[in-house]
Structures are given as C-alpha cells and as structure tokens.
C-alpha cells in the first residue's frame, strides 16, 4: 500500500515537473517576431470618394413667358456662344415693335418739320429786320410817319419771338424722338427675349420641356455645362485631410473606366466640412480628362500629399492606443521585448504609420501582433531593421 502511494506521488511530481518545464519553454523561450525595415521613396496618398462635376453648370430659360414654337438642340449637343437654342411665339411682340417703329418715324418727321420752321422763322426775321432798317432811315428824314417806324420794329420783335419758339420746338422734338427710339429699343429687346441663345460654349446636359409648352419667365428650358470646367468633387475624411494643399497632384479613377487613371491637381478645398459625415470637400481639376464626361459619375480620388524619401513605417495593427498622433509599439531592444511610446507622422495608403520619434538606437519595431508578446521576453527577429 505504501509502495503504491509512493509511486503515485512520484508520478504526480513527474507530471508537475513536465508542466513547469512546458510552461517555462512556452513563456520563456525566445519568440520569433517580424520587424519593420526602412522604406524609401514612399508616396503618401489620401483617399477620397466623390463624383464628376463641372464648375459652371447653368439652368437657363426665357426672361418672358409664352408658348414654345421650336427647340433647336437636344441633350448631349455641343453649342457655341450665341447659338439659338429655342424660340417663343412672338407675334404680339412683333406688333408692338412695329408700332414703336412707327412712333419713332413720326418723331423723326416732327423733328424735320420743326427744323424747317426754324429755317422759315429765321428767313422772316431777316426780312423784317431789313424792312425795319429802311423804315427807320425814312423816319429819320421824316419821309414816313413815326407810327410806321414803330410797326416795323414791332414786326422784328414778333419775328424774333417766333424764331425762339421754333428753336425750342426743336428741343421738344429731339426729346420726343429720343423717347420714341428708347421705346423701340425696349420693344426690340423684349422681342429678342423670345429667342433663347447659349450664354457660353457648352454641352447640353438636359432638355426640360418640349415644343408647344407654355412656359413662364425664368422656367428652366435647358441645363448647360461648360466642358472646360470639369472637375471631380471628392469627400475626404477629416482625419486624413489635414495634409491636403492646393496644387497637389491627384489621380482619378472613374467607375465606368476602372482601368484608366486620369491626372489632376487640387484646385479648391472647401472651408466648411460636413458636420454629419465629418468629411472635407476637395475639388480636383484634371489636366488629362476623359474624352466623354458624365456628371454625377462616381470617382475614386487619391491625392499625393507627400513623398517620404526615407521612412520607418509600422503597420497600424501593430500600434496600440493610437490617437492619431501617439501610440505604443513593441520593440526588440537588446534581444528582449519592451513596449515604448512613439510619435507618428504620415499614414500611408496601406495603413502604415510613419514613426517620427520615440525609438532608441538599435530598436527594432515588431511589425505584427504575435501571440505571446510580453515585457522582457527574449525575442528572435525574422527580418532585419534599423531605427
């Protein structure tokens, strides 16, 4: 019985010893860890999702209301500045223009008559002045009576007054003609409003009505786009948008052309972010644009905000407690694991963080979370690196 008890105790001791040895082997043996290496010429890109837009998009219509008699263009057509796009029924306005033109002609005739009256009044005045001169000479020699001399002078005064009236009539006639001409120009302008012309070289995006429709003043007839102002509106996460600046290069991929890359630059950065989605609006102007543009098409944008000539990059999954600026990483220091705080800079497109400082000379940063990492444990690196 005692022998069996002794054998049982020995077995338990052996099992315990094996367990302790296994625990020591699993927890104290050097653990193999991957480490990061220095990367060179690494572009830092910021990703944004957006749509194709145009800076100049106009919804145009008539300044007056009437029935549409004709539409000259359709969606997708290219038009030149001043080209006629549509017409309104204009018979009533044409009649108003004709009446205004007749009034202008009548004003011209009145002006001509008043000028003729001035010529006649000047001739009458000259004649009576000559007669008065003779009469006054005869009166001095007592050849005629003083009454006749006075009548001659009175005739001169009356002729001078009539000339003044005739000259003032010219001013009135000139004002009447100017008023008639202004009225004619006004009616002609209203008639011109019955024709819709392209305000700039454009592409017809959409046609909103058809011929025969009675439209109101200001109602949209066409939507126009200036093809030279095409750009991409991208929405970028605020956490990544801080490094974006005007003039930075960008790449745009369209959903309909996923295998092509179109180049551009940052042309505008919105000064107001979306308060709900916490995104910033960035506009990319293309200098190599697609041959055919479709407004509203989804686009992927990658903006190059920096080029790291030499950088120490650690995957974000290997950083704990990262707050956008600082975090903690495992490093191999003198063959043992230790956890240190580090300050980070740029974040690459593949979710790696640039370490700015926090490492000691010779530290090697663990590039992936490995099971069994603990403070002070011996470690064996799988890849060489430098701080």
UniProtKB/TrEMBL annotation:
Coiled-coil intervals: none
Assigned keywords, A-Z: Membrane, Transmembrane, Transmembrane helix
Residue ranges crossing the lipid bilayer per the database entry: 7-26
Source domain of life: Bacteria
Pfam families assigned to the protein according to its UniProt record, in alphabetical order: Beta-barrel_RND_2
Every CusB-like beta-barrel domain range: 229-269
InterPro entries: Beta-barrel_RND_2, RND_pump_MFP
Family stated for the protein in its record: Belongs to the membrane fusion protein (MFP) (TC 8.A.1) family.
PANTHER family listed in its UniProt record: HLYD FAMILY OF SECRETION PROTEINS, MULTIDRUG RESISTANCE PROTEIN MDTA
Record's protein name: Efflux RND transporter periplasmic adaptor subunit
Source organism phylogeny: Bacteria, Pseudomonadati, Pseudomonadota, Alphaproteobacteria, Rhodobacterales
């Amino acid at each position: 019985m005692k022998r069996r008890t002794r054998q049982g105790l020995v077995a338990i001791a052996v099992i315990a010893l094996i367990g302790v040895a296994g625990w020591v082997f699993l927890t104290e043996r050097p653990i193999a860890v991957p480490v990061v290496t220095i990367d060179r010429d690494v572009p830092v890109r910021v990703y944004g999702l957006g749509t194709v837009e145009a800076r100049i998009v106009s919804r145009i219509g008539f300044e007056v209301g009437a029935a549409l008699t004709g539409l000259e263009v359709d969606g997708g057509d290219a038009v030149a500045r001043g080209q006629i796009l549509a017409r309104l029924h204009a018979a009533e306005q044409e009649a108003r223009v004709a009446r205004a033109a007749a009034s202008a002609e009548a004003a011209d005739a009145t002006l001509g008559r008043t000028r003729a009256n001035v010529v006649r009044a000047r001739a009458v005045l000259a004649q009576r002045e000559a007669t008065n001169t003779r009469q006054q000479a005869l009166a001095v020699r007592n050849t005629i009576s003083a009454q006749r001399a006075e009548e001659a002078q009175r005739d001169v005064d009356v002729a001078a007054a009539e000339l003044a009236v005739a000259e003032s009539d010219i001013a009135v006639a000139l004002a009447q003609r100017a008023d008639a001409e202004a009225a004619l120009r006004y009616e002609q302008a209203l008639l011109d409003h019955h024709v819709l012309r392209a305000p700039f070289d454009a592409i017809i995006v959409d046609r909103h009505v058809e011929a025969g429709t009675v439209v109101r003043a200001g109602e949209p007839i066409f939507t126009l786009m200036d093809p030279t102002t095409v750009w991409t509106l991208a929405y970028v996460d605020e956490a990544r948008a801080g490094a974006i600046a005007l003039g930075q290069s960008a790449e745009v991929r369209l959903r309909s052309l996923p295998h092509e890359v179109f180049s551009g630059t940052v042309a505008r950065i919105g000064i107001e972010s979306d308060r709900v989605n916490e995104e910033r609006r960035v506009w990319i102007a293309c200098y190599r644009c697609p041959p055919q543009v479709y407004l509203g098409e989804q686009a992927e944008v990658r903006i190059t905000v920096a080029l790291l000539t030499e950088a120490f990059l650690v995957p974000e999954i290997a950083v704990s407690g990262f707050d956008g600026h600082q975090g903690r990483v495992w490093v191999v220091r003198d063959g043992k694991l230790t956890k240190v705080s580090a300050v980070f800079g740029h974040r690459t497109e593949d979710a790696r963080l640039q370490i700015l400082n926090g490492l000691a000379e010779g530290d090697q940063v663990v590039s992936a979370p490995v099971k069994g990492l603990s403070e002070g444990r011996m470690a064996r690196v799988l890849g060489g690196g430098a701080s």
